[in-house]
């Protein structure tokens, strides 16, 4: 009998705050066909529109944009936290196409939310996800986010998952 083993490569990830030099990378990721399909704004984004939005967000004290890289400093994906009100930040994530389906979303979400809670311990993180996006639902669940309710957002049936500092270690 012959045995074969599949070795899963484990990437060492790090992150940093996004800066102006990352603008075109974020533009490319934002206009990825699969990313647009899962977004609430499904149409492509113009460069002018993106540039204005990106420069505003990296300088916004109510927004935290983190860029994740592997050990070779290759960009893997991004997470953005946007303040919604006095108790809540909303999280968004996207991974580069070549890193999807490798189980990295859970790790990225854990690292990002742990970092977020060191800065903003009194806040709750909300994740709004289209109900049809089963992979994101699974990733957020594995990262310790808890189902809160179902709702409609821009005519899309969606789910809300939340994370508090108390369940940040999940």
What does this entry look like structurally?
There is one protein chain. This protein has 170 residues and is of the alpha+beta class. Helix content is 30%, strand content 30%. It has 5 helices and 7 strands. It has helices at 23-30, 33-38, 47-58, 104-119, 134-142, and strands at residues 14-17, 63-69, 75-83, 88-95, 124-130, 146-153, 156-163. The chain has a 7-stranded mixed sheet, with helices on both faces. Helix 1 (23-30) packs across helix 3. The radius of gyration is 16 Å and the shape is globular. The relative contact order is 0.14. The model is unreliable at 1-9 (pLDDT under 50).
List the helices and strands and how they pair.
Layout: E1 14-17, H1 23-30, H2 33-38, H3 47-58, E2 63-69, E3 75-83, E4 88-95, H4 104-119, E5 124-130, H5 134-142, E6 146-153, E7 156-163
Parallel strand pairs: 4-5
Antiparallel strand pairs: 1-2, 2-3, 3-4, 5-7, 6-7
Helix pairs in contact: 1-3
């Amino acid at each position: 009998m012959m045995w074969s083993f599949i070795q899963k490569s484990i990437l060492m990830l790090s992150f940093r705050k996004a800066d102006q030099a990352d603008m075109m990378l974020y533009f490319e990721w934002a206009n990825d066909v699969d990313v647009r399909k899962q977004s609430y704004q499904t149409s492509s984004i113009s460069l002018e529109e993106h540039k204005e939005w990106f420069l505003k967000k990296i300088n916004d004290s109510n927004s935290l944009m983190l860029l994740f890289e592997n050990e070779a400093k290759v960009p893997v994906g991004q997470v953005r936290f946007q303040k919604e009100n006095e108790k809540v930040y909303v999280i968004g994530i996207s991974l580069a196409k070549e890193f999807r389906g490798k189980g990295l979303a859970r790790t990225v979400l854990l690292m990002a939310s742990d970092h977020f809670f060191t800065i903003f311990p009194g806040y709750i993180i909300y994740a709004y996800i289209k109900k049809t996006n089963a992979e994101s639902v699974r990733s957020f669940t594995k990262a310790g986010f808890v189902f809160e309710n179902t709702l409609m957002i821009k005519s899309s049936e969606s789910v809300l998952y939340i994370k508090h500092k108390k369940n940040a270690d999940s």
